[in-house]
Design goal:
The complex is a heterodimer of chains A (110) and B (152). Helix content of chain A is 45%, strand content 34%. Chain A is an alpha/beta fold and 110 residues long. Chain A has a single domain, classed as Transcription Regulator spoIIAA, CATH 3.30.750. In chain A, strands 1-2-3-4-5 form a five-stranded mixed beta sheet. In chain A, α1 runs parallel beside α2. Chain A is globular and about 30 Å long. Chain B has a single domain, classed as Histidine kinase-like ATPase, C-terminal domain (Heat Shock Protein 90). Chain B has four helices and five strands. Classes of the chains: A alpha/beta (110), B alpha+beta (152).
Chain lengths: 110, 152
């Protein structure tokens, strides 16, 4: 999995590419840990080019959401497709996260 | 039935090897682009459970076999020699609670059950044997074909 993270205005935008599985999910955990330690509380995850996610990836996203909730932060998700969208729907994650059709819509809501 | 048969140590470093070998086998059997990630997900979840829990800190192997069953379904067998663990006995996770109340974990086995047509568990000697059956033209694929015909 490739992780492309950048600060843009008040938010951190994290674009994920490839496969978020039990091997690669810890890379994501490390990236978000670093941003939260730096004081960031608004994180937007762009799934446009993520092809695959397993329960390990979902757990990383949930762990991030729980941490941000404790510090009154926000996590927004955008552009879920194909197998990734299906996994979010089956797991019920689609109904507990704020998900936008595309990155621009997510940015506009911050 | 076996057309793929690999045995590797139950280590997270080997997850990619298992999934790559599985994927080649799925493509050889003309599984669709929609089916492949579903099967990969079911198998990843089963392998990760074994890697994390089966050997309780000791070393051990995982055996993966794939092929076509007598009824023409795609069949995958995953074997380990760890502690007995029947995935079919786990309760279904609560899918509707809030972020705060949502429990970490519990989704892996749920995904395995959702992504295959039939899931069987047996203890054979000192081994756990998990068998996954996948129809090669399952409901989703058939439906999308029908939609295409309807639209044409």
């Amino acid at each position: 999995m490739e992780i492309d993270a950048k600060k843009e205005g008040q938010a951190v935008i994290i674009a994920l590419t490839g496969r978020m599985d039990a091997v690669s999910a810890p890379q994501f955990d490390k990236t978000v840990d670093d941003f939260i330690e730096q004081g960031e509380t608004r994180i937007l995850i762009d799934f446009k080019t993520l092809e695959y996610i397993s329960s390990a990836g979902l757990q990383s996203v949930l762990a991030l959401a729980k941490r941000l909730e404790m510090i009154s932060g926000t996590v927004l998700l955008s552009d879920l497709n194909g197998a990734v969208k299906e996994v979010f729907e089956i797991s019920g994650f689609s109904s507990i996260f704020t998900i936008f059709d595309n990155l621009d819509a997510a940015k506009a809501s911050i | 039935m076996s057309q793929l048969h690999i045995i590797l140590p139950a280590k997270m470093d080997n997850l990619g090897n298992f999934i790559q070998s599985l994927s080649m086998c799925l493509k050889q059997h003309e599984m669709t682009a929609e089916q492949i990630p579903r099967v990969q997900l079911a198998v990843e979840e089963a392998l990760v459970n074994i890697i994390r829990y089966a050997y309780e800190g000791q070393t051990g192997d995982i055996e993966l076999r794939c092929g076509i069953a007598d009824d023409q379904r795609f069949v995958i067998e995953i074997l380990d020699s760890g502690v007995p663990f029947d995935v079919l006995t786990l309760p279904k996770p609560d899918l509707h609670c809030s972020i705060k109340d949502r429990k970490m974990g519990g989704l892996g086995v749920f995904f395995i059950q959702r992504m295959v047509d039939e899931l069987l568990y047996r203890r054979e000697g000192d081994k756990n044997v998990l068998t996954l059956f996948i129809s090669r033209n399952n409901g989703c694929f058939s439906r999308s074909n029908q939609d295409m015909h309807a639209g044409a």
